[in-house]
Amino acid sequence: MKNRIGSLVLNSTLAGLMTVMIIGCNKPTQPSGTVPPSTSVGTEIDDTVITAAIKSALLANPEVRSFDLQVETRKGEVQLSGFVDSQVQIDRATAVAKNVTGVKNVLNNMTLKGSPASVGNKVDDGIVTTRVKSALLSEESIKSHDIAVVTRKGEVQLSGFVDNQLQIDRALVLTRGVEGVVTVNNEMSIKK
């Protein structure tokens, strides 16, 4: 089992590194007049390694083991978001993330689940998540790949690191307009 987890961590890390290298090489130029917060390819690779290590550690931890958690990292600052069953899971997930090498700070944006979701709720939530992601993708002013979307019983949680408040505001407006969205929780942060 340890070899399998170690192999999973290594493969996840390598896949993340390759993704960042490809993305870094294919970054579009910024429109004139806008200056994005700077990060180097090295920083992006470090952040990807941190994210992969945290995801692996969370999956390996029997107290947390949740697929409903999102992990975003920017310059060593980690954002945990999504839906969990208990405060114990929140506390444990935060502790696990803080113990990963390279983590400077952990933002807890996790939400406690209410009553259990039915199979119908899960299917509906998957459809809502897809609709929200599509709406965000269609908007040129939003870097939708920087925004994670999780839905539970029509409650949509948006998280991640974006360039400015305008992107947050536009993402919230678009999400609220999607059919099936009951409420929207904003857990997005502006890049530093």
Automatic annotation (TrEMBL):
Residues 46-114, 124-192 form the BON domain. InterPro entries: BON_dom, Lipoprotein_DolP, Transpt-assoc_nodulatn_dom_bac. Keywords: Periplasm, Repeat, Signal. GO terms for cellular component: periplasmic space. It comes from the Bacteria. SMART domains: BON. Signal peptide: none annotated. It holds the Pfam family BON. It is found in: Periplasm. This is Osmotically-inducible protein Y. It comes from Candidatus Dechloromonas phosphorivorans.
